[in-house]
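Please, structure for the following, as tokens.
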Amino acid sequence: KSVKSILRHDLISKIDEIRLELKKKRLGECLETNKNRPLITAEDAYSLWQNGNYIKKSSESTADCTNKITFDFLYRLLVRFGVFVPIDLNIEKVSFGGEDYGLCDKQSSRRESSFDTVDLETLDKVPRFFFLPCLLSDVTPEHLMWTYKTEECWKVTVCHSFLFPDGVPPGLMERITAAVLSDIYSATRNEKKGERENKEQLSINRILCWRTTFLLELQLGHNKTEILCHLADRDSKLCVASEKMTAGMKRLILSGRGHRSDGARYLYNGGYFIVFRAIERVMYEYSGCEYETDGVCPDCLQKNNPSEVHTWDWNELEAAAYNGEKQIRCNNGHKVDKLLVTGNSKDYPQLEQSSHEVSDLSGSKPTKAVMDLIRGVVLVGLWDADANAVIAAGSGFVVDKNRGLIVTASHTLMNIDGYEKTPYGTNYHGYNGRVVIGIIPRSKGETSVHKTTAVFRYFGEIVTKDENMEEHGVCHVDACIVRITTRIERDVDGDGSGCAGQPEILLNNKEVMKGEKLKALKYTETYQVEEHVRILGYNQGGEGLLGPGEHLNRTADFSVGQVLRDHEVDEEGRQKMRSGYKPLKEIVVRLPSIGGHSGGPCVNDQGDVIGILCRADRVDKQRCYLVPVSEWMPLLEKSKKRD
């Protein structure tokens, strides 16, 4: 009810009504009251709450001190969840939705309270004005006064973007605007309190906000930084790298303009770090939201059309930072100082933030932690509907979460070498089978993975495999694509026997599949000899005193090693192979592998999949073979076309 009393379309008229009843007018000439503004004073918020019957009843039944605490709690609660954003109007320019509110009369910043139940001491502890992002009108500026090009040689424009391939989640810009302005306000307030003695002072000159855009002008010492944040589609003139976008995609653009020296030190320290981290934090809170973070070439911004600029994937920037590279080259031939794209927190003093620590945008270590990847790794079981049991198990990973596509090893789900008694190349080894899929669940509201044990949640089907098995009686690719088809009504643990007889929910389109919030892993065809790699999967080779096959393991683990070489076999060599499996190309890696890891992803330091585990060497058990991405990519493309 407290929130409802604030977030209303008739907010201004309601405030005026209360003022009239109280026969007091506190805003004076500071704010006009004839427009629906997304702004409110602390006094007006308290007035609205005090005027509500639910607050009155609470006040009458409590002591005065408790009443004071109630109002203070409500204000802090709304600030914490981004409904209220503290704002200072005593700056050069403040504009919300095209309406100016800056340079308020300082004498009016604190006026007599219009009610007696809340002590003025309480009001003195809170900001004078609050911005309400959710009340911004839908009006957006036709022509933003922003350009990526600079005329002064000592200036530079930096830019980063967040690409949403499937559209943006609801309320994204409201939450980002609230988070950014709150962090900026907090940083400048801390400095005013003298917490940054002997350091350059950060201050705010301008704030301009619209529904999908905000512009800031901040100042660090004598150096000014201009910052743009804009949610754009591919037709926007400000959209960077729009040539790489397709219909329906959105790109959140963060750009800053400031002093070029010392790797744009004053630009990054002058508020850009704060804004970037605030955006990152909001994105992290949207569980299941798919996006890609890119850095943009500053030379391309200066010389090329925004739609044609080169962007670096975040993994590339992390790798460059980790390898100590001082310069990076874009596809348009520009050789750029790495610090202009990544920033660097180690080379100079940083402005601290009250809510989180500042660090390099690129991070100090590129290795993607296993815990950041593990939810994308799935347990793949062969379900025998006649026996109501899982009769074989391997691993795999989600490669397309919107289509529910999974890459796994073919030999888990079919006979590909001809040695087994089951029919060669037949799905599910000829059983009345299906694919049962286990994933590591994430509790509601949980933002990180705290456990590594999977539960069986889905049934799926094989949609593509190596066609040579049927056409020529030989298998060249030990990989297949499985598509999730249904969700089991209740998650199943144990040996999976609980999957039998359960109702199933049909997952037959992208919109329904998106609601499952699967985690997909990225993949790359690029790898190098001696590159550090890890294989993730579900070991079925026994653990402790339990031997192989004595129980179905649902806990994921990993092994560590490195790439040894490419392994390609010519036609003459393949003719000498007795097995029905005759691979054309494999990646040889040195690492320990156990049964059950088959089909599991092998990832590099950046967390990108370079291949899936196929088999271990017959002699050297520390030597394994991968099916490279390039070998199963055609199967994936064919699966996508079958929608």
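The first strand starts at residue 39 and ends at 41. The radius of gyration is 29 Å.
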